[in-house]
Amino acid sequence: MKPLVFLDFDDVIAIHPDYTSGVVVAALRSGNPHLAIELWANVFHQEMRANLARLHHEFEPIYVISSSWATYMSRDEIKEALIRGGLGFVAASLHSRWRSATEVGSFRVTDIVAWLRSNGAPRPFAYVILDDSSSGRTLVDSVLEPHTVFCDEWVGFAGIQLERARAILLAQRTSLSIEV
């Protein structure tokens, strides 16, 4: 079974202060999203995209969006933003239950635990949560913390976080193969 990545956007892959979710929604709903060339080139930071691509190529995960963006954007809008923003591989690998957050302002830990209970496989599977210290603060000291990579605000999914994500998934892959 492929591992899961619970992916937050803000302060993980989206770190530019001018290209917020509101700007993305406005562009998508304008009827002319293709005109926002600068937005799509910068909404998801180039280094963060590259690091996520490295993780993707190594583990070929399925993605669940744990970002607040998923509470006010449709699946199609999220997919279009991902594709236009250079993350087509994430859009192509979205889980059929593509989001964990369903309410604005909900707690990340509650959302992800509920998602895992509702959608988890009958056998254990590997997963990692990519979040930031602010929106992911409820993950600290929770049962999910060992699966969580915390990104620094305005820095994102940098090299050290990529290595932590790899280590989390590799450790689970090893322990799951021993259990089988």
Q: Strand order, biggest sheet?
A: 3-2-1-4-5
Query: Shape, please?
Result: globular
Give the biggest sheet.
5 strands, parallel
Given helix and strand content, the structural type is alpha/beta
CATH class: Alpha Beta
Order of helices and strands: EHHHEHHEHEEH
Query: How many discrete structural domains?
Result: 1
Q: Tell me what the CATH architecture is.
A: 3-Layer(aba) Sandwich
Low-confidence stretches: none
Total strand count, please? Answer: 5
CATH topology: Rossmann fold
Radius of gyration in whole Å, from Cα? Answer: 16 Å
- Total of DSSP H or I helical runs spanning 4+ residues: 7
Distance between the termini: 12 Å
Explained architecture:
Helix content is about 45%, strand content about 15%. α3 runs parallel beside α7. A 5-stranded parallel β-sheet has the order 3-2-1-4-5. It is built from 7 helices and 5 strands; from the N terminus they run βαααβααβαββα. The mean pLDDT is about 90. The chain is an alpha/beta fold. It has a single domain (about 5-180), classed as Rossmann fold (3-Layer(aba) Sandwich), CATH 3.40.50.
